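INPUT
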Amino acid sequence: MATDGDQFNAELLAAEHAMYAPFFGSLGVTFAMIFTAAGSAYGTAKSGTGIASMAVARPDLVMKAIIPVVMAGIVAIYGLVVAVIVSGKVAPGGPEYTINDGFSQFAAGLVCGLCGLGAGYAIGIAGDAGVRALSQQPRFFVGMILILIFAEVLGLYGMIVALILGAT
Amino acid sequence: MEELIPNFRDRETQTAVKRLVIYSLVIIVVPLLSMFLLKLFLFEGIFGYSSQDSILYAAIIAVVIVHIVLGFFVYAAWKEEITPRTAAEEKEEKID
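OUTPUT
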């Protein structure tokens, strides 16, 4: 019985020190960047069309109207930060880098990436409608900023969870 | 184009675009620079943290700095005086 238990422990250890653990870690890095970049790109493009169509009539409002694009850019910065931090931790599989590390970095990348994707979508759609409304009614500025901040914070939540998951 | 170019010659539009370019450059360059410079010189150089810890702290500070710059951006956009061109004037222009 004792030998069975030893063999079981050895197999468990071998499974924990799987050589494919860095695969998941690298995938986490990739997902953190590509999903936030996709969300940021959608937000920039969607609010960019709105800015272009309102700026023909009111180019003096460009400083106010560009804020959705800036916020969409910040979502990509979240992804970049998480990708840089997590990629520094990816190492060859073994006792130093168990499958647990790989999975938690995978989860960190996914949570940051998908939260960023959602935040980028929200910024794009709300920003598009917001800047079009801004050209008609400049007093809507505060409302647009609030909506955009609430959309932006969704990406920030994802980044915080990703840092907790990936950096500990 | 005939509509666009006089708009850019307008002084208010010019200052708005200038400020916009400056703030956009700042919001792109400052966080990235601060992240890597803080890691290299402050956390690794002065505090002597490991590479992993220092990049984490530098990243958190960089994200905070991004939001401070964004706050300045929004404040500048908010403080930009609302131009005298109101909807009524636009209607008049269209009638002309």
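end of record. The interface with chain A takes residues 3-4, 7-8, 10, 12-13, 16-17, 19-20, 23-24, 27-28, 31-32, 35, 51-52, 55-56, 59-60, 62-63, 66-67, 70, 73-74, 76-78, 80, 82-83, 85, 87, 90 of chain B (CB under 8 Å).
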